[in-house]
Design brief:
single chain; alpha+beta; four-stranded mixed sheet; Ribosomal_uL18_bac/plant/anim; ribosomal protein; Ribosomal_L18; Ribosomal_uL18_bac-type
């Protein structure tokens, strides 16, 4: 029996489960996980084997009231800066069920500009 999503959030969570089945973060190549809300965007590097967050960045710490493409790019660059300081250069990108478009794409581009490879 195929389960159908009744709203946008449950659909995203169903897609997220499928993505998480396929990818996992390690110590040498952590998972870059993205979460976005109506007002902010958040990103963190996760080592799934140990269950630790290695670095994180959000639009809230930049003082932004809304999540725009330019703010998302800054968040990606800030996360990359913190990751490179901890010795991480390669990551696995986890878009968490969001479409790779707009803010999610801008965050990924900012992380690439900051020095992360994925």
């Amino acid at each position: 029996m195929i389960k159908m999503a009744f709203n946008k959030n449950s659909r995203r969570l169903r897609i997220k489960k499928g993505i998480r089945r396929k990818i996992s973060g390690t110590d040498s190549r952590p998972r870059l996980s993205v979460f976005k809300s109506n007002t902010g965007i958040y990103a963190q590097l996760v080592d799934d084997l140990k269950g630790h967050t290695l670095a994180q960045a959000s639009s809230k710490e930049l003082g932004a009231k809304n999540s725009t493409i330019s703010v998302s790019k800054e968040v990606g660059m800030k996360l990359a800066e913190r990751a490179v300081a901890k010795g991480v250069s390669a990551v696995v990108f986890d878009r968490s069920g969001y479409i790779y478009h707009g803010n999610v794409k801008a965050l990924a581009d900012g992380a690439r500009e900051g020095g992360l490879k994925f």
